[in-house]
Sequence to fold (94 residues):
Amino acid sequence: MDSFTCDMCGKVLLAEENTRYIVKIEVFAAYDPLEITRQDLAGDHEAEMARLLAQMRSMSTEKLEDQVYRSFRFDLCPGCQEKYLAQPLPGKSG
Ligand SMILES: [Zn+2]
Fold:
């Protein structure tokens, strides 16, 4: 059987605690199709595509992927789940 450890405090989960929490974070570029205007549709797509492709070629694959999609998954013990929920975004208290 897999053993899980808390990604925040390192405690072995399910051995010391009955509950484990999973945090899943997805970070991706938001794209809202409603923001496309007539002006966008009338624009020069070929020039824009060429510009974007040139920009993409100059980036490393890793960096490019970071810009498109990143996901994180953490296992937390109940104590750290509480701490995490109190401040899901580092540096932002709320
Ligand atoms: Zn913990």
